[in-house]
Amino acid sequence: MRMMEPPVSPSELQDALRRFQDTSPWPGVTQIVFRLAGVAILLSWALATWWNGQMLGFWVAGTVLGFWYASFLILTHDAIHHTLTGWRRFDDFAARAMSWPVLWVHATYHEVHLLHHRMNGANPLDPERVQPTPEELAQARGLGRVRLRHQMIWDMLLRGGLGLILETLMKGWSLRAQAPKMVRAIVQDLVGIASVAAGMQVAAYFIGEHLEPGRGGQAMLGLAVLWLFMERAIGIVMYVRKHVEHYGLWGERQHFFETQVHACRNVGTNRLMSWFFNQLNFHSVHHAFPRVPFYQLEAAHRELTRLYGERGVVLPEARGYSGAILDVLKLAWSH
User: Is residue 31 classed exposed, middle or buried when 0-12, 13-18 and 19+ CB atoms within 10 A define those classes?
Assistant: First the structure.
């Protein structure tokens, strides 16, 4: 039987989206500088309140810093595709410099995420697949079935940032045969994170001793406790992204572009939330054309929706992140 022709041909999509795929470095540089400045200000606030024993202020500062740093860390996603600045070596270096201080395994995630782009919607081995297969649902029992029915809540509140780190390492290791650079990436992350973490703790100790002899250990403890705030906040944001972008949309279509366009959820949201997620709410066009830089995603998304709209096809879209979260929770519960 002859497969139905897709509503928009691959050649038409490529022709229409080609003009959006050149990357200028300056929007990315601006984003790095602005968000890094926010990190510096909030980090200073958090450490100052810890040093002065103002625990309520420390909790507030640590929480705000955690969510702000999550938005900073999202920039590393664009670095994977070399669409942050377009300077390939700079993007690779900058992403590691952003990631290792909070123990995020960026080099491993780089390889894992590229596999995700190859496998999304088509291969159950996709390391970022969150939607369970019918076989997985049928085999799940007890606590495993409870977890599948409440997966987003489980991931956000229980697994958190540490769970995401361990999950990424384990999935990377299990898929090392699929990605020749995976083992090197894991080793690079473990060595890099250990070196940066040790350097930060040594610096905290000596700064503390310099400010007030005998309080170096307190400075080190403050840095460690601050990481716990950030681990929770970053975990919440990253798991929201992971579920909202793909849950409930699994399925292979007529060709690669069709699969990517329909296996991703777009989120209609306000400018602030779109900025926070660095325009990744326009997710269909990102998956179909990962060379489109973040600052062109909205315009490219409009072109994509125009092409499909002319054929009477509506792309998957949720109304706001709160609406997207509710959609995912309902779908998971229905299982």
Answer: buried
